[in-house]
Amino acid sequence: MTKPKVLISDALSPAAVQIFKDRGIEVDFQPALGKDKDKLAEIIGDYDGLAIRSATKVTAKILANARKLKVVGRAGIGVDNVEIPAATAKGVIVMNTPFGNSITTAEHAITLMLALAREIPAADASTQAGKWEKNRFMGVEITGKTLGVIGCGNIGSIVADRALGLKMKVVAFDPFLSPERARDIGVEKVELDDLFKRADFITLHTPLTDKTRNIIDADAIAGMKKGVRIINCARGGLVDEQALADALNTKQVAGAAFDVFVEEPATGNVLFGHPNVICTPHLGASTTEAQENVALQVAEQMSDYLLTGAITNALNFPSITAEEAPKLKPFVELAEKLGSFAGQLTETGISKVTITYEGQVAEMKIKALTSAALSGLLRPMLGDVNVVSAPVVAKERGMVVDEVVRAAQSDYESLITVTVFTERQERSVSGTVYADGHPRLVDIKGIRVDAEFGKSMIYVTNEDRPGFIGKFASLLGDAGVNIATFNLGRHSQGGDAIALVEVDGSVPENVLAKVQALPQVRQAKALTF
Ligand SMILES: NC(=O)C1=CN([C@@H]2O[C@H](COP(=O)(O)OP(=O)(O)OC[C@H]3O[C@@H](n4cnc5c(N)ncnc54)[C@H](O)[C@@H]3O)[C@@H](O)[C@H]2O)C=CC1
Ligand SMILES: O=C(O)C(=O)COP(=O)(O)O
């Protein structure tokens, strides 16, 4: 196996380089490359993995050139610089490190809050300029003050914890925060308007979404306490910068500390130069400890995926542990092939697909298996579908996907059945994996078979009447099509029967037409796996 190759296009800790090397992965460390999108687009085609922070924008354009790319690893939390739908459509896993820099970022928010309260940067500049303006700076105490936390997830709850330690009262607005969790972390869950009315300091810790964009705008600011101080260490765009600048001028807002900006790098910004505005250049995650954490973690996660198929912290695929990955692998292959078998036989729109997992396989990561089955099913119809994109594509097409798990009900330790419902009919196909690790077809439309998935196959449904097999076999022989394996099955004597034949090489159209024309034949299809 050739070594997978990873590009690090951002300023990750060199610890990541070492991990990749130790794991036997070739690595190019080009910490400034992310800023050069043309160069990135030019070379991305060579790599199986891309490790980034926030400076690299992984756009659809970059992904279009990423022929070999399997994984984008974000050494950090926010993935708003990655076009995840485009990555998903390409089958590229996008993973992050959701906790590695949370403490550090929470500490940055607290640092900025305290710096705001005591005007530290301005006082420092004045003192070092030799002015000794003892009477110019008058701070505010934070003990007993109310901190409003918008977004109380990983970072917001650490900020809340630290603020409680500083004897503040903490109110939080987060629609997804349960009352129990609020109680556990010692915050009062409130509505946004209430938070605005009550908070002396407001700190933001949500992702940037359509719902959170400009969550603090002119109207919101008008509803706040006069003299409020605002801290944003989450994402630029959560606060309307112009509205905030106006409110700083009228003293409605007494100070603002921003680590993130609508446009980054922020070399000019409407907030710059206002009194009691503190700005840092997106430093939330920039501590030795956090950078070491996220670099090590992302390198391990990416190596695991590239080398073993284990998936951790992916935003567009379920997690699969290193222990699960090898056990899952043959079942992924089985699910994909069963899906493909059903997909190649289906000629009309699919309204629903039910995937049933019986026995041991029911204990596995069935989400991953369902994705595999769907990709096999959809690919014959849509072409460009992969295991990562298949669930999204199925949903977009209005397909209902049901998963059923149950104890073993057959002779097989594990059995997967894919049932496809179209307007015209319902078709089921089942398979298992034997001890040799090879997937087998064991049931087609209720007829028992025992067939491997050959590269090139002919599937025939026919009436169980004498003469068919001979005619079918000699027809293939006469046409120079060599039979590799031959499987037969039937419902009952004289009833519906099937033949599944693996042949060497592809099946010529005219041969298939002749098979189709045999008197007993209902349907003949060439299948490829
Ligand atoms: N400045 C920096 O260098 C860093 C910034 N960040 C950013 O900090 C932010 C928070 O990160 P985490 O706490 O790890 O994320 P998280 O996912 O743990 O928490 C986000 C919270 O926001 C809440 N939320 C979602 N929509 C909301 C809405 N409309 N209103 C109120 N709350 C809402 C969620 O329920 C969740 O609890 C992210 O945007 C991340 O990118 C993270 C690390 C470093
Ligand atoms: O992890 C995050 O979401 C961050 O914003 C940190 O960004 P960075 O890795 O410092 O460019």
From TrEMBL:
Pfam families reported in the protein's UniProt record: 2-Hacid_dh (PF00389), 2-Hacid_dh_C (PF02826), ACT (PF01842), PGDH_inter (PF19304)
Domain of life: Bacteria
Catalytic activity: (R)-2-hydroxyglutarate + NAD(+) = 2-oxoglutarate + NADH + H(+); (2R)-3-phosphoglycerate + NAD(+) = 3-phosphooxypyruvate + NADH + H(+)
A single MF term (Gene Ontology): NAD binding
GO biological process assignments: L-serine biosynthetic process
Keyword Amino-acid biosynthesis: yes
Protein name as catalogued: D-3-phosphoglycerate dehydrogenase
Amino-acid biosynthesis in keyword set: yes
Domain spans labelled ACT: 457-529
Gene3D superfamilies (alphabetical): 3.30.70.260, D-3-phosphoglycerate dehydrogenase, domain 3, NAD(P)-binding Rossmann-like Domain
Listed InterPro entries: ACT-like_dom_sf, ACT_dom, ASB_dom_sf, D-2-hydroxyacid_DH, D-isomer_2_OHA_DH_cat_dom, D-isomer_DH_CS, D-isomer_DH_CS1, D-isomer_DH_NAD-bd
Its EC number(s): 1.1.1.95
Keywords carried by this UniProt record: Amino-acid biosynthesis, NAD, Oxidoreductase, Serine biosynthesis
Main EC class the enzyme belongs to: oxidoreductase
Role noted for this protein: Catalyzes the reversible oxidation of 3-phospho-D-glycerate to 3-phosphonooxypyruvate, the first step of the phosphorylated L-serine biosynthesis pathway. Also catalyzes the reversible oxidation of 2-hydroxyglutarate to 2-oxoglutarate.
Pathway annotation: Amino-acid biosynthesis; L-serine biosynthesis; L-serine from 3-phospho-D-glycerate: step 1/3
NCBIfam families xref list: PGDH
